[in-house]
Amino acid sequence: MAIIKKKKITYKISAGLTQFLLRYNRYLEIPIHYKDLTRYESALPLYDHLDEDTLWKTVIYSHSDRELIYLDLKKIYAILKASGDTSVMKHLYIERVDICTYGNTQPFRVRVVNKLNDNFDYFYIKQADASRVYGLELEDILSPNRISYLVHEQTLIEEHISGLPGDQFIKEYLDDPKINKIRMGKEFVKFNERCFVRLLGDMHSSNYVVVVTPDFEETDFKLRAIDFDQQSYEGRKSIYLPQYFKQNNPIIKMGIEAMIPETVNQYKKEERSMMGNRLKTSEHKISSLLRAMKADTLSTPENINTLKNDLADYYKYPAFLKCKNMGEILETSLSLLFIQ
Prior knowledge:
The chain contains eleven helices and ten strands. It has helices spanning 15-23, 34-37, 63-82, 130-142, 166-172, 181-197, 249-258, 261-281, 283-294, 301-315, 326-335, and strands spanning 42-47, 53-60, 92-100, 108-114, 120-127, 149-152, 155-159, 164-165, 208-214, 219-225.
């Protein structure tokens, strides 16, 4: 069972990472920053459709601040979604701004509504953490999913990733007899392998969503990470394997019932092959990212030493023992996609 015992350290955006972000148009001027949103006067509990406390709070700004803040938030949405084309703003309004008071970094969530059809979307404004930025970029490169995000100074803007929260899916939908257990188990195996290879930790059921797509014969499932704070930080190998989090046990149990070990190994190899193909098509980008990562401090010496020894033993690959930082450990892990 995987348990994270200590709060993760937050790392600032370094000059090297900033250069990478500038090169790939992720670092842009924005009209409002995280600290500006903290100037709210009060906050009210936010309840869901079942009248249960979501643990988010809706913040209230003074009348004099609200108009300008909401205008700047619409500008950020235009930058994030329409390359800065402000013509999309005329039909939009900011319905509310929420803050997650139980999280370590207390992110803000902005709800944007189209007044022509009441369709809505979200985006997030967070305190930038280098670990999370590396995690977002690695997700964009190595997963089947594209990620839209922006950084300026120490503020991070993220798009909303749609899907059913993993814990909600397990509680409300997993027992549905119509679910194809093999398809669900296959996706978890691939997700598990992807997290392990790219060293994304803490993928318990609250930190990913399940995207459900009806197909012409069967319903398809995809698991998408939504929390990237634990990218290449923890020292124990088990933290990077979703299979070791007890919150995921119902999905794991389903997979065990539906698949034999040979099938599981086949899906692991398929996912490693797909990741290898994505690396080949992003060779210059991943090299640039790893160069910045290897020059950064992203974990403690203790965690680095524990992880490189764990991985050297697991893979029977002594090259891990030569690694001096998390960037080198990740680079070695990715290199195995072309060796094993």
